[in-house]
Amino acid sequence: MNITELFAIAPIISITIVSLIVLLVEALVKRSEGLSYWISVVGLVVTAYFAIATLPLIGTAFNRMVTVGGFGSMFATLFSIAALLTIILSKDYLQKEHANFTEFYLLILFSTLGMMLMASAADLIVIFLGLELMSICLYVLAGFLRKKVLANEASLKYFLLGAFATGFLLYGIALLYGASGTTNISFIVQNSSTLSASPFFWIGLGLLLIGFAFKVGAVPFHMWVPDVYQGSPTTVSGFMATGAKAAAFAAFVLIFLHPQSENSEQVKTVLAVISAASMIVGNIIAISQSNIKRMLAYSSIAHAGYMLAGLAAGNQLGKTGILFYLVTYTFMNIGAFGILSLLEREEDKNLTFDDYAGLGFKRPFLAALMAIFMFSLAGIPPFAGFFGKYYVFVAAINANLTWLAILGVLMSVVSVYYYLRLTVLMYFKEGDMQIEGIISKTSLAVLTIAALIIIQLGVYPSSILNIINNLN
Amino acid sequence: MNFNITDIPLNSYLALSAILFSIGVIGVLTRRNAIVVFMCIELMLNSVNLTLVAFSAFHGNITGQILVFFVMAVAAAEAAVGLAIIIALFRNKMTMNIDEINIMKW
Asked: Which domain holds residue B39?
């Protein structure tokens, strides 16, 4: 280890230090919520700065345990921004739910650290540790409102099924280690043609696929998604749907879209089938939901399906498409969950479609933001969601998966129904939503910025595509 | 008495850990008490540890054993969080049966 290696993983070091400071503040200061909130916000901004500063670096550090710069830094930036938005939006929500404790910010910071480790892993051990750090924090966050039975239930389901999936993932890692004698990802990928003679390699790869498919919430490993997203605190659901999903996709890409890898036809077919099943199940069940959080949960299954189409394609365009999709999806989904969290009232009030009737007249600005997020999720230009879908589907067509692209477009049309239903209710129906109480200016400012970024990425997608294409 | 881990063929270790893993999976899918389900998950993790240690001995490198240490630490953290979650639920619902934990469906 030397000093340059420490600088090379600056974003990871920075968020670790911030987490530890918050931990100490929690222990030493009474009523530390306000202080730790500001430390977290400043710390995440600094982390995002370091992540952007390390983008041009190349190579690995710490005996080929982590990759530095490029892909990992790109994701580190995304995770810091997602955590920043979540923390700012959570403050009002937690005060409303009488649960504004320092531990919340701490757990968000630690899970962000786990996500960054996953995205910059060069070794299966690091992927496993990052995944567990992220997941264990999220299990607690899911049940953070511990007096609500719904939150307890969500937390228990997430924990039991998450730990179950971890078992499969770990068995996969063990068998890959057995087949190759190492846990280094690039060694395994480079020698995959010789290793594939061993049955351990294939079983291990399959088990690894199951573990990741569970974490991204793809069919048939999606059973936990709707219950967990519905029961968790609303802003945490937004964080799980974006940060945790992006981290799992980052690990997916690291292994299955490695620059030196050539995915075999079997792997491609399996990924394509999972992708198709996720799109169909997610979109069709989302239609019948009356709770908006649950609708967004099923839609997140469908979005995992779209991104898996890029993964199944297995080409450079697919990788670019997934990264672009994850960036846009983070902003639009945290935005949508953020608005839900602002309007939600105690005992899960104001969460159904009918409650949103007439919002366009009472809160025109908030309704306009919600409409932008919904249009973007549906993939309607000029919003960024359209280009995300465009790139993954073009990648699928280039990889001779035209049937998957056609299915994806058809399912996007289905999704328009439930996204626009909310918009129609907001603007064309009278309703009697009770929204007394003020909505803080900070939260509104954050949501406005998210909406502006979605429009900016939709009008000039090249602004972020150039960065993605220059990654090593 | 001289005993070497490699005296027993690798396949025996792998078969034993595969059997333990399957018992764990079947337990998770069929048992109804949240704590028993959690114990079955621990069994799965430990059967993986056995696989790792066996491979480590037969490959002659230490990576697998290092991973086992990490897995044990992670499993301990997971146990702490998991039992806390189960207690929080028990306080509110007075049950551990996962069939009764079903407010949310579809």
From this structure: 5-94
Dist. CA A284–CA A275, nearest whole Å? 14
**CA gap A420, A398 in Å, rounded:** 31
Q: Is B99 part of any domain?
A: no
Question: What's the whole-model pTM score?
Answer: 0.95
- At A330, the amino acid letter reads T
Q: Is the pLDDT of residue A199 over 60?
A: yes
Put simply, the answer to whether A143 touches B88 (Cβ < 8 Å) is yes
- Residue B104 resides in a domain: no
pLDDT, averaged across chain A: 92
Q: Do B45 and A170 touch (CB under 8 A)?
A: yes
Kindly state whether residue B19 falls inside one of the protein's structural domains.
yes
pLDDT in the model for residue A263 = 66
Question: Which chain A residues are within 8 Å of B77, Cβ to Cβ?
Answer: 132, 136
Q: What is the CATH number of the domain that holds B56?
A: 1.10.287.3510
Domain assignment present for B102? no
Show me where the domains of chain A are located.
Answer: 260-472
Res A423: pLDDT? 92
B44 touches chain A (CB under 8 A): yes
Average pLDDT, chain B: 90
Q: Is A129 within 8 Å of A173 (Cβ atoms)?
A: no
Question: In this model, does residue A259 exceed pLDDT 60?
Answer: yes
